């Protein structure tokens, strides 16, 4: 659960999802006492432990959040952000300004 904390709002890319899956699989292998040298497939380990793939969990949390948003009233800030129009906004040319507020 801690690995996906707040994941319903993350704008993740495929490479980031892949890295999360690798991290999760390393943790599962560590908990089970398996190493890569044991040459046991990830699917076999997942089946033995009974853990769903991280991609499925991520999709489930996003759908749950989507349901919460859709049940809110139209005046709620979350719903107003859902239909925000940024077509009038233009970014400036060139490299973004340096900021130390990271």
From TrEMBL:
Domain of life: Eukaryota
Protein name per its UniProtKB record: RNA-directed DNA polymerase
